[in-house]
Amino acid sequence: MIIIAIVSTSAVAQETFLQGNKFFENQQYEKAINAYNQIKNRGFGIYFNLGNAQFKLGNHIDALVAFKKAEKLASYKEFDQVNKNLNLTREKLNLLIKYSYIQKFLKLFSWLFLQFVLILLLFTLFLLFYIRLLRISVFILTPLFLFFGIIYYLKFKYEADNEVIILDALELKLGPSDNFHSLHKLQKGDEAKIVKEKEDWLFINQGKKNGWVKQCSCIKI
Description:
The chain has a five-stranded antiparallel beta sheet with strand order 6-5-4-1-7. Strands 2-3 form a two-stranded antiparallel ribbon. It is an alpha+beta fold. Helices cover 55% and strands 16% of the residues. The protein is globular and about 65 Å long.
């Protein structure tokens, strides 16, 4: 299944997307990939279809990257669809199946909505404090502010964090050089968060595993 339409102000982008879909339907997956890659401003639909085309060709790492990018851009209704394809790809790479109910819940709140609510709550809190209605501000607005503040933090944690996908099995290093000792092993397709960068090395975190890897050994999402 592929996405059949995208929202774009560019007629050229829409036409290229439709051409890519036609190639996909005719099982010309390489041509479909080339068409999707020509579109500069890519949204959920492009990454989702790109992932499907890569999967059909057996390019499972490229499919995983595309589906992960689609997942970050997915709406609440689209989340299950892309998560299913992500897990099919993970199965091909012998990786653990994942499903995040927290991530899906966070899709209910857009960045714009959260920013608007937090600003509105701050303004109301300040106004009530100014007119000395402290009890209302403390017992009603403060819990609301904390709730949406936590939602904002979690959304940033899950959607805005820089991540990488490991291209092949490797060992995490103690420092940014091959001369350092190896600490942990990661397998092909493993996902990790970028903590910091130094020249052509990345310090990454995957659960309880931390260490340095070369940038060329992984793909940034």
